[in-house]
Design a protein that fits this description.
Shape: elongated
Distance between the termini: 100 Å
Strand content: under 5%
Helix content: 25-40%
Structural class: mainly alpha
Largest sheet: none
Radius of gyration: 33 Å
Number of strands: 0
Number of helices: 11
Length: about 260
Amino acid sequence: MTLLSIAILLLCGSAEARLRPGGDRDGDGLTNAQERAYGTNPRRADTDRDGDDDLYETSYGSDPLDRTDRVDDDGDGMAQYYEDMFGCDDTIVDTDGDGEDDDTEWRYGGDCADPLNTSDDDGDGMAQYYEDMFGCDDTVVDTDGDGEDDNTEWRYGGDCADPLNTSDDDGDGMAQYYEDMFGCDDTVVDTDGDGEDDMTEWHYGGDCADPLNTSDDDGDALAQYYEDQNGCDDTIVDTDGDGFDDWTEWAYAADCADASVTP
């Protein structure tokens, strides 16, 4: 047997091995046996060349042999498999014509086939999916009747189903979400008892949980936020020692960190 004959046999053998039933010649996730069962090409990942590989199409309800039949024909983000499951139309972005695309309704708790059931029936900005998760009522803007809509309570740390737990229980203007984040107490206006409410400290650079760190440690009337922003020292009234306090220099467009630039 010549070397050429041996090479041909080896090549043929390798090609045959790559098409064994359990193999995946084109690497699309379908075995060669499955490709044969679907009638797809085991040497081409996307048999109909429509942009969706054969595994994707066979998994989500489209025809891997028809390039006009894709996984998401209407392009709304919802696969045909799920459109069929929930009674939607895969050729229409908004099956029930309620103003929401099918994918949004399906993902967030609405019904893509019912125009009276959207993902946010009460229009409070909180999807039905989350209303259900947190015990709220998707047909009522303010489920617990505490004066805050469900979305505001949910986003900022309150409980939309408990009228005693709002997003700002102490009324200091700082949402519970941020009070928790910065170690403050949402039931106390001035957590650290330093004379400044939590909102003021948080907003202007102090620490609402540390009585030694206020929004104006040096008492020059220029908040720490602005001292930091302009290169001043919040523990010194006159940072650059030019005879003008930091607030005066900041207010009159001088430089509180440069003694040569005064008001």
